[in-house]
Structures are given as C-alpha cells and as structure tokens.
Amino acid sequence: MTGRKRHPSVRMVSQSLDRKASTHMSEVQRGRLLAAAGEVVAEVGYAGMSMARVTSRAGVSRGTFYELFEDREDCFLAVFDDAVTRIAAVAVPAYEREQSWREQVRAGLSALLVCIGDERGLGSLLIVDALNAGPRVLERRAQWLETLAGIVDRGTLGGERGPGVSTLDG
Hints:
The protein has helices at 8-48, 51-58, 62-68, 72-97, 101-118, 122-132, 135-157. It is mostly helical. It has one domain (9-157): Orthogonal Bundle (Tetracycline Repressor, domain 2), CATH 1.10.357. The model is unreliable at 163-170 (pLDDT under 50).
C-alpha cells in the first residue's frame, strides 16, 4: 500500500468530512461561548463582561473566541440576537393563535413575559445591558423596538383603537 495514491473522489469526501467536523466543532464552541456570555452578563452585567470571563466560563481559548467574534460587543450582539430569537419562538406563535389585534398583543406579550421570567437575567440583558453595549447592539435593539411598535400600532390603524389604546410614539 505504500506509495499508492488515493482516488480523487476519496480525497474530496475526506476533505468534506473534515470541513463538516470543523464546522460542527465551531458551532459547539460558539454555543458554549454564547451560553457563558449570557451567564456572565446575568451575574455582572455587560460592563463586567470580559472576553477572559466568557472564555474561562466556556472552557474555550482566547484564540477560539476571536475566531468566532470580532470583540466583546460582537459576542454580546450574538447573545442578544439569540435571546430575541428564543423569545420570538414563543411569543410569535402565541400572537398568531389569536384573532383580534387586542388578543394577539395580549397573548404575545404574556408569552414574552413568561419567557423573560423563566430565564434568569434575560430581561435585564434585553432591556438594561443592551443599553450599555456598543452602537451595533443599540442599533439592533432599536430595530426590534421599531418592529414591536409597528405591531402595537397596527391595532390603532386597523380600527381597534379603544379606550386607553394609543400609538407608542404618542
């Protein structure tokens, strides 16, 4: 077998498997870093979140952190996006099950509040810590708030405006 060349298709399959394994490992490490960052922020806030604290908690090297994230803000932005995605996965179906705008908003908001209440630090991460993060996080937060304002305002535009219902912008 010495000196025998592997068929090109075997080499391609081997390279493909190596890439898939590497991608999977990166996803695992990214998940560990996001979970660790969320825990660190819940304990010490964004101001106390450091790359060293996050990597130590995740059991991941500094080099791996920088392979996956540009900086601390980039990591926090990923945690923020993950939190919004998890909440949306609960709130959107609750919202969509209802018929009237008022019941949709009530169901979506209830689901959102339950989700925030079930996970330590989630509300603070989205509301307080996001305000202390950098401009990319503030921009993303503003986009989500604009989306939520549009949903609430939809009721006022759709004729369901009743006593005590006003647009979010005044």
